[in-house]
Amino acid sequence: MAISKPTESELEVLQVLWESGPSTVRQVNDQLNDPQTTARSTRRSTGAPREVGYTTTLKIMQIMFEKGLVSREEDGRTHIYTAAVSEQDTQSALLQQFVDATYRGSAMKLVMQALGNHEASPAEIDEIKMLLAQLEQNQSNDDA
User: Fold this and answer.
1) Which stretches in the chain have pLDDT values below 50?
2) For residue 120, which of 51, 82, 124, 132 is within the disulfide window of CB 3.0 to 4.6 Å?
3) What's the whole-model pTM score?
């Protein structure tokens, strides 16, 4: 199943749902406006925090429901929203779209760019080596 590409605002809502679990619009809106949550958001850390209105959050979540990004259950007059897509599947789909669009599908070019722009610590280099060894092992098993 192809994941509908979430907008930046939708991704923020998904991050709240992934972290907090099933939530009402009010709970999501409160998290989006929480200064501690705001500090973790890369988009908002580059500028002044913004206040997200309740009706804006409601509209975003209604659109997300229509796109299949969230599911909802009624509890009386309240709707409880749950992420309908996993964090890992969403990250994988967004990364693949990014690699395809930016690096013409070359994961190697992405990795080389990332390593060239970031001084990796010895621990990070060791983790990369272990990941490469694991990928080689998996490939050997697939070839056998």
Assistant:
1) 39, 42-45
2) 124
3) 0.74
